[in-house]
Amino acid sequence: MAMTTIATTAVAATAAITPTEAADRAHAAAQIAQQAADAAQLYADAAAQAASGLTGGAVDPFVFRFSIFILAICVGYYVVWSVTPALHTPLMSVTNAISSVIVVGALLAVGVALVGDDSGPTWARVFGFLALILASVNIFGGFLVTERMLGMYKKKA
Predict the structure, then answer these.
(1) Distance CA 138, CA 140 (A)
(2) Same domain for 145 and 116
(3) Are 17 and 25 in contact (CB under 8 A)?
């Protein structure tokens, strides 16, 4: 009951803003997201430079970042294949939630530049559109798999 009230209040508050206010809020959110991305890039650069400095320049920062990417692939592989069938449905639900975050980021990449006067790089909007399509397919497929898995546990009449 409380969630319905909160959702109704949020919809009523959203409906009360003008398109100009919505554009201003979207622009402010885009600036905050850009600042967060810049800060994350600075942290990654600092970590790569620290690794390069600790090894006396023997490790290129690209190699450092690439090795983290490869390690993430290995950890992801072992985590996914170690999941028991009983935990598969909750794992799919979490994956759908992560994909929904990707959809929000893709929408920002595609649409925020259209709200303001700046056009933004075309390649960013193209990749944002591709991310939007792929994440949407992933979410839809995840719900289909989750529904099928839950159907396995239903009693047959």
Answers:
(1) 6
(2) yes
(3) yes
Residue located via tokens 């709200």: 115
Q: Using a cut of 0.90, tell me whether the model's pTM lies above it.
A: no
- Tens digits of residue pLDDT in 17-42: 887 887 788 778 878 888 888 888 88
| Same domain flag for 72 and 101 | no
Contact criterion met (CB below 8 Å) for 106 and 129: yes
Examine the domain organization and report whether 73 and 89 are in the same domain: no
CA distances, 114 to each of 3, 25, 83, 120, 130 (Å): 33, 14, 42, 8, 17
Q: What is the DSSP letter of 155?
A: P
What Rg value do the Cα atoms of the chain yield, rounded?
Answer: 21
> What share of residues in the chain are helix, strand, coil (percent, to 5)?
85, 0, 15
Over residues 51-80, the pLDDT tens digits come to 777 777 777 778 878 888 898 889 888 877
Q: What's the token pair of residue 94?
A: 């979490």
Residue 128, Cβ neighbours under 10 Å: how many?
20
- Written as one letter, the residue type at 55 is T
Question: Tokens in use for 47?
Answer: 């970590």
DSSP 35-65: HHHHHHHHHHHHHHHHHHHHTTT-S-HHHHH
